[in-house]
Specification:
The protein is of the alpha/beta class and about 350 residues long. The chain contains 8 helices and 16 strands. The chain has a 7-stranded mixed sheet. It has a 7-stranded mixed sheet with strand order 9-10-11-12-13-14-15, covered by helices on one side.
Protein backbone atom coordinates (compact mmCIF):
# COMPACT_ATOMS: atom_id res chain seq x y z
CA UNK A 1 0.00 0.00 0.00
CA UNK A 2 1.30 3.45 -0.91
CA UNK A 3 1.32 5.86 2.10
CA UNK A 4 -0.85 8.93 1.74
CA UNK A 5 0.68 12.37 1.30
CA UNK A 6 0.22 13.49 4.94
CA UNK A 7 1.99 10.34 6.17
CA UNK A 8 4.90 10.94 3.81
CA UNK A 9 5.03 14.57 4.87
CA UNK A 10 5.15 13.64 8.55
CA UNK A 11 7.96 11.21 7.83
CA UNK A 12 9.90 13.80 5.81
CA UNK A 13 9.52 16.40 8.53
CA UNK A 14 10.89 13.89 11.02
CA UNK A 15 8.57 14.81 13.90
CA UNK A 16 9.34 11.57 15.74
CA UNK A 17 13.05 12.26 15.30
CA UNK A 18 12.84 15.18 17.70
CA UNK A 19 12.49 12.61 20.48
CA UNK A 20 10.82 13.32 23.81
CA UNK A 21 11.39 15.40 26.90
CA UNK A 22 12.33 13.45 30.06
CA UNK A 23 9.54 13.10 32.61
CA UNK A 24 8.63 11.15 35.74
CA UNK A 25 11.32 9.14 37.48
CA UNK A 26 13.76 9.86 34.66
CA UNK A 27 13.40 13.60 35.28
CA UNK A 28 13.68 13.08 39.04
CA UNK A 29 16.94 11.22 38.58
CA UNK A 30 18.27 14.02 36.38
CA UNK A 31 17.49 16.59 39.05
CA UNK A 32 19.64 14.63 41.51
CA UNK A 33 22.67 14.87 39.22
CA UNK A 34 25.55 17.14 40.33
CA UNK A 35 25.62 18.37 36.71
CA UNK A 36 21.97 19.54 36.80
CA UNK A 37 20.67 22.83 38.14
CA UNK A 38 18.07 25.44 37.20
CA UNK A 39 16.42 23.06 34.76
CA UNK A 40 19.43 22.17 32.61
CA UNK A 41 22.75 20.31 32.65
CA UNK A 42 26.01 22.24 32.91
CA UNK A 43 29.67 21.75 32.09
CA UNK A 44 32.27 21.80 34.83
CA UNK A 45 33.53 25.17 33.58
CA UNK A 46 31.75 28.17 32.07
CA UNK A 47 31.55 27.60 28.31
CA UNK A 48 30.57 29.56 25.26
CA UNK A 49 28.25 27.71 22.90
CA UNK A 50 26.62 28.84 19.71
CA UNK A 51 23.18 30.05 20.74
CA UNK A 52 20.21 30.40 18.35
CA UNK A 53 20.46 34.19 17.94
CA UNK A 54 18.53 35.51 14.91
CA UNK A 55 21.03 38.34 14.57
CA UNK A 56 23.89 35.94 13.82
CA UNK A 57 22.45 32.51 13.04
CA UNK A 58 20.97 33.48 9.67
CA UNK A 59 24.29 34.69 8.31
CA UNK A 60 26.13 31.65 9.60
CA UNK A 61 23.53 29.33 8.09
CA UNK A 62 23.88 31.04 4.71
CA UNK A 63 27.66 30.72 4.96
CA UNK A 64 27.41 27.04 5.84
CA UNK A 65 25.02 26.36 2.95
CA UNK A 66 27.24 28.22 0.48
CA UNK A 67 28.73 25.79 -2.00
CA UNK A 68 32.38 26.09 -1.01
CA UNK A 69 34.19 23.21 -2.77
CA UNK A 70 36.94 23.18 -0.14
CA UNK A 71 34.51 21.78 2.43
CA UNK A 72 33.92 18.61 0.41
CA UNK A 73 36.23 15.94 -0.99
CA UNK A 74 37.24 16.48 -4.60
CA UNK A 75 36.30 12.92 -5.53
CA UNK A 76 34.86 9.71 -4.08
CA UNK A 77 36.15 8.86 -0.62
CA UNK A 78 37.85 5.45 -0.73
CA UNK A 79 36.06 2.89 1.41
CA UNK A 80 37.25 -0.34 2.93
CA UNK A 81 35.06 -3.40 3.39
CA UNK A 82 34.97 -4.25 7.09
CA UNK A 83 34.62 -7.85 8.28
CA UNK A 84 31.10 -8.82 9.26
CA UNK A 85 31.63 -12.12 11.08
CA UNK A 86 33.19 -13.27 14.34
CA UNK A 87 36.80 -12.37 13.75
CA UNK A 88 38.23 -11.05 17.00
CA UNK A 89 39.87 -13.05 19.79
CA UNK A 90 39.24 -12.69 23.49
CA UNK A 91 42.50 -10.78 23.93
CA UNK A 92 42.35 -8.67 20.76
CA UNK A 93 41.54 -5.00 20.26
CA UNK A 94 40.30 -3.68 16.93
CA UNK A 95 38.61 -0.45 15.88
CA UNK A 96 36.57 0.02 12.72
CA UNK A 97 35.69 3.60 11.82
CA UNK A 98 32.59 3.91 9.64
CA UNK A 99 32.75 7.68 9.15
CA UNK A 100 32.12 10.77 11.28
CA UNK A 101 31.90 9.52 14.91
CA UNK A 102 30.46 6.07 14.19
CA UNK A 103 32.84 3.25 15.08
CA UNK A 104 32.94 -0.35 16.23
CA UNK A 105 35.27 -1.27 19.08
CA UNK A 106 36.08 -4.98 19.38
CA UNK A 107 37.59 -5.43 22.80
CA UNK A 108 38.36 -8.81 24.38
CA UNK A 109 35.69 -10.54 22.30
CA UNK A 110 32.95 -7.93 22.94
CA UNK A 111 31.64 -5.49 20.35
CA UNK A 112 30.62 -1.94 21.20
CA UNK A 113 29.11 0.34 18.56
CA UNK A 114 29.70 4.06 19.13
CA UNK A 115 27.30 6.82 18.02
CA UNK A 116 25.88 4.99 14.99
CA UNK A 117 24.51 7.25 12.23
CA UNK A 118 23.55 5.40 9.06
CA UNK A 119 21.12 7.95 7.57
CA UNK A 120 21.90 10.02 4.49
CA UNK A 121 21.43 13.22 6.51
CA UNK A 122 22.21 14.09 10.13
CA UNK A 123 18.94 15.93 10.54
CA UNK A 124 15.37 15.41 11.75
CA UNK A 125 14.35 15.61 8.08
CA UNK A 126 15.18 13.39 5.13
CA UNK A 127 14.90 16.44 2.84
CA UNK A 128 17.19 19.04 4.42
CA UNK A 129 20.26 19.08 6.62
CA UNK A 130 23.91 18.04 6.23
CA UNK A 131 24.15 15.26 3.65
CA UNK A 132 26.58 12.36 3.79
CA UNK A 133 29.77 12.86 1.74
CA UNK A 134 30.50 9.17 1.34
CA UNK A 135 28.43 5.98 1.55
CA UNK A 136 28.28 3.97 4.75
CA UNK A 137 30.85 1.19 4.22
CA UNK A 138 28.60 -1.58 5.57
CA UNK A 139 24.84 -2.03 5.89
CA UNK A 140 23.41 -2.10 9.40
CA UNK A 141 22.09 -5.58 8.81
CA UNK A 142 25.61 -6.81 8.07
CA UNK A 143 27.07 -5.75 11.39
CA UNK A 144 28.17 -8.57 13.68
CA UNK A 145 26.24 -9.26 16.86
CA UNK A 146 26.73 -6.30 19.20
CA UNK A 147 27.17 -6.35 22.97
CA UNK A 148 26.38 -2.66 23.49
CA UNK A 149 25.43 0.48 21.60
CA UNK A 150 26.93 3.59 23.22
CA UNK A 151 25.65 7.12 22.65
CA UNK A 152 27.61 10.23 23.67
CA UNK A 153 24.80 12.83 23.39
CA UNK A 154 21.61 13.58 21.53
CA UNK A 155 22.74 15.77 18.62
CA UNK A 156 21.60 14.49 15.22
CA UNK A 157 25.09 13.58 14.03
CA UNK A 158 25.45 11.22 17.02
CA UNK A 159 21.92 10.00 17.75
CA UNK A 160 20.01 9.02 14.61
CA UNK A 161 16.36 8.02 14.85
CA UNK A 162 16.19 5.60 11.86
CA UNK A 163 19.44 3.93 12.90
CA UNK A 164 18.23 3.40 16.47
CA UNK A 165 14.96 1.94 15.19
CA UNK A 166 16.83 -0.47 12.93
CA UNK A 167 19.25 -1.53 15.66
CA UNK A 168 16.35 -2.09 18.07
CA UNK A 169 14.79 -4.51 15.61
CA UNK A 170 17.95 -6.17 14.37
CA UNK A 171 20.24 -6.41 17.40
CA UNK A 172 19.76 -7.60 21.01
CA UNK A 173 22.27 -5.16 22.53
CA UNK A 174 21.44 -2.64 25.25
CA UNK A 175 21.77 1.08 24.60
CA UNK A 176 24.02 3.03 26.99
CA UNK A 177 23.16 6.72 27.04
CA UNK A 178 23.70 9.84 29.16
CA UNK A 179 21.01 10.94 31.59
CA UNK A 180 17.78 12.00 29.91
CA UNK A 181 18.57 10.55 26.48
CA UNK A 182 16.54 7.47 27.35
CA UNK A 183 13.40 9.58 26.84
CA UNK A 184 14.17 9.76 23.11
CA UNK A 185 14.71 6.00 22.95
CA UNK A 186 11.47 5.39 24.82
CA UNK A 187 9.56 7.35 22.21
CA UNK A 188 11.27 5.39 19.44
CA UNK A 189 10.19 2.02 20.79
CA UNK A 190 13.35 0.79 22.52
CA UNK A 191 12.29 -1.53 25.36
CA UNK A 192 12.95 -0.11 28.82
CA UNK A 193 15.09 -3.10 29.77
CA UNK A 194 17.49 -2.24 26.93
CA UNK A 195 18.08 1.37 28.03
CA UNK A 196 20.86 2.10 30.53
CA UNK A 197 21.25 5.77 31.50
CA UNK A 198 24.35 6.93 33.30
CA UNK A 199 25.61 10.12 34.90
CA UNK A 200 29.27 11.11 34.83
CA UNK A 201 31.44 8.65 36.78
CA UNK A 202 28.76 5.96 36.79
CA UNK A 203 29.53 2.51 35.38
CA UNK A 204 27.84 -0.67 34.27
CA UNK A 205 29.37 -4.10 33.69
CA UNK A 206 28.25 -6.18 30.72
CA UNK A 207 29.70 -9.67 30.42
CA UNK A 208 33.04 -8.65 31.90
CA UNK A 209 33.26 -5.34 30.05
CA UNK A 210 32.99 -2.23 32.21
CA UNK A 211 31.59 0.89 30.56
CA UNK A 212 31.90 4.19 32.38
CA UNK A 213 30.37 7.55 31.50
CA UNK A 214 32.94 10.29 32.00
CA UNK A 215 32.90 14.05 31.69
CA UNK A 216 32.85 16.00 28.44
CA UNK A 217 32.56 19.71 27.66
CA UNK A 218 29.71 20.17 25.21
CA UNK A 219 25.94 20.75 25.11
CA UNK A 220 22.81 18.94 23.95
CA UNK A 221 19.44 19.37 22.31
CA UNK A 222 17.38 18.25 19.32
CA UNK A 223 15.21 21.39 19.26
CA UNK A 224 15.82 25.01 20.24
CA UNK A 225 15.68 23.92 23.89
CA UNK A 226 19.22 23.25 25.10
CA UNK A 227 20.90 21.05 27.70
CA UNK A 228 17.87 19.10 28.94
CA UNK A 229 19.86 15.89 28.49
CA UNK A 230 23.44 15.14 29.47
CA UNK A 231 26.49 14.69 27.20
CA UNK A 232 29.36 12.39 28.03
CA UNK A 233 32.58 10.69 27.03
CA UNK A 234 33.07 6.95 27.56
CA UNK A 235 35.59 4.50 28.97
CA UNK A 236 35.47 0.91 27.68
CA UNK A 237 37.48 -1.35 29.96
CA UNK A 238 38.03 -5.09 29.74
CA UNK A 239 40.23 -7.17 32.00
CA UNK A 240 43.43 -5.87 30.36
CA UNK A 241 42.44 -3.58 27.45
CA UNK A 242 41.07 -0.03 27.66
CA UNK A 243 39.62 2.36 25.09
CA UNK A 244 38.45 5.97 25.48
CA UNK A 245 35.94 7.84 23.31
CA UNK A 246 35.66 11.62 23.67
CA UNK A 247 32.25 12.06 22.09
CA UNK A 248 31.98 15.77 21.27
CA UNK A 249 33.92 18.05 23.58
CA UNK A 250 36.04 21.10 23.87
CA UNK A 251 39.46 20.74 25.46
CA UNK A 252 39.31 20.91 29.26
CA UNK A 253 41.49 19.97 32.20
CA UNK A 254 39.25 17.02 33.04
CA UNK A 255 41.07 14.81 30.53
CA UNK A 256 44.07 14.52 32.83
CA UNK A 257 41.79 13.35 35.64
CA UNK A 258 40.13 10.79 33.38
CA UNK A 259 43.53 9.49 32.33
CA UNK A 260 44.61 9.23 35.96
CA UNK A 261 41.42 7.46 37.07
CA UNK A 262 40.86 5.15 34.10
CA UNK A 263 44.00 5.08 31.96
CA UNK A 264 46.36 4.42 30.47
CA UNK A 265 44.39 3.61 27.33
CA UNK A 266 45.42 1.30 24.52
CA UNK A 267 43.56 3.58 22.11
CA UNK A 268 41.46 6.72 22.11
CA UNK A 269 38.91 7.83 19.55
CA UNK A 270 39.16 11.62 19.64
CA UNK A 271 37.03 14.30 17.97
CA UNK A 272 39.05 16.47 15.57
CA UNK A 273 36.55 18.20 13.26
CA UNK A 274 33.77 20.82 13.18
CA UNK A 275 35.76 23.38 15.17
CA UNK A 276 35.50 27.15 14.81
CA UNK A 277 36.60 30.26 16.66
CA UNK A 278 32.92 31.05 17.23
CA UNK A 279 32.47 27.94 19.42
CA UNK A 280 35.93 27.31 20.87
CA UNK A 281 34.81 25.66 24.10
CA UNK A 282 32.63 22.83 22.80
CA UNK A 283 34.65 21.29 19.91
CA UNK A 284 38.37 20.61 19.95
CA UNK A 285 40.78 21.74 17.30
CA UNK A 286 43.14 19.03 16.00
CA UNK A 287 45.88 20.38 18.25
CA UNK A 288 43.51 20.23 21.21
CA UNK A 289 42.72 16.64 20.29
CA UNK A 290 46.38 15.62 20.48
CA UNK A 291 46.76 17.47 23.80
CA UNK A 292 43.71 15.64 25.16
CA UNK A 293 45.15 12.33 23.99
CA UNK A 294 48.39 13.03 25.83
CA UNK A 295 46.47 14.04 28.96
CA UNK A 296 44.46 10.83 28.78
CA UNK A 297 47.64 8.74 28.55
CA UNK A 298 46.41 7.31 25.28
CA UNK A 299 48.29 4.83 23.14
CA UNK A 300 46.96 4.83 19.58
CA UNK A 301 45.08 7.97 18.50
CA UNK A 302 42.20 7.34 16.08
CA UNK A 303 40.71 10.67 14.91
CA UNK A 304 36.94 10.80 14.44
CA UNK A 305 34.27 13.42 13.73
CA UNK A 306 35.54 14.40 10.31
CA UNK A 307 35.14 13.46 6.60
CA UNK A 308 31.44 12.56 6.51
CA UNK A 309 29.30 15.69 7.04
CA UNK A 310 29.88 19.41 6.52
CA UNK A 311 29.27 20.86 9.98
CA UNK A 312 31.71 23.79 10.06
CA UNK A 313 33.55 26.19 7.77
CA UNK A 314 37.02 24.67 7.59
CA UNK A 315 38.24 22.75 4.52
CA UNK A 316 37.35 19.05 4.36
CA UNK A 317 40.83 17.65 4.97
CA UNK A 318 42.17 20.36 7.29
CA UNK A 319 41.37 18.49 10.54
CA UNK A 320 43.30 15.38 9.57
CA UNK A 321 46.21 17.30 8.04
CA UNK A 322 46.60 19.27 11.27
CA UNK A 323 46.22 16.28 13.58
CA UNK A 324 48.85 14.35 11.60
CA UNK A 325 51.29 17.24 11.90
CA UNK A 326 50.64 17.70 15.62
CA UNK A 327 50.85 13.96 16.34
CA UNK A 328 54.26 13.82 14.68
CA UNK A 329 55.42 16.87 16.61
CA UNK A 330 54.39 15.32 19.94
CA UNK A 331 55.43 11.73 19.25
CA UNK A 332 51.86 10.36 19.31
CA UNK A 333 51.07 7.16 17.41
CA UNK A 334 48.31 7.88 14.91
CA UNK A 335 46.09 5.75 12.68
CA UNK A 336 43.92 7.38 9.98
CA UNK A 337 41.80 4.58 8.54
CA UNK A 338 39.60 4.83 5.48
CA UNK A 339 35.89 4.52 6.33
CA UNK A 340 35.27 0.84 6.96
CA UNK A 341 38.92 -0.05 7.59
CA UNK A 342 39.48 -2.29 10.61
CA UNK A 343 42.53 -1.28 12.65
CA UNK A 344 44.44 -3.74 14.82
CA UNK A 345 45.45 -1.53 17.73
CA UNK A 346 48.49 -3.73 18.39
CA UNK A 347 49.65 -3.43 14.76
CA UNK A 348 48.20 -0.20 13.34
CA UNK A 349 48.74 0.72 9.69
CA UNK A 350 51.14 3.51 8.88
CA UNK A 351 49.53 6.82 8.00
CA UNK A 352 49.60 7.04 4.21
CA UNK A 353 47.83 10.34 3.48
CA UNK A 354 45.04 8.67 1.48
CA UNK A 355 42.84 11.78 1.79
CA UNK A 356 45.35 14.20 0.27
CA UNK A 357 44.41 13.41 -3.32
CA UNK A 358 40.86 14.55 -2.47
CA UNK A 359 41.85 17.89 -0.91
Amino acid sequence: MTPDKPSRLRKALGLAAFGARPAGERAERMRRSPQYRDGTFHNQAQTRTLRPDPATTGGMLRELLRNDPRRKPAGPVPLATPPTGDSTGRDGLHITWYGHASALVEIEGRRVLLDPVWSQRCSPSSLVGPRRLHPVPVALGQLPRLDAVVISHDHYDHLDYPTIRALTAGQPAPFLVPLGVGAHLDRWGVPANRIIELDWDESVELDGLRLTATAAQHFSGRTLARDRTLWTSWVLAGSTRRVFYTGDSGYFDGYAGIGEAHGPFDAALVQIGAYDTRWPDIHMTPEDAVAAHVDLRGGLLVPVHWATFVLAFHPWSEPVDRVWQEAKARGVTLAVPRPGQRVDVDDPPAVDGWWQALS
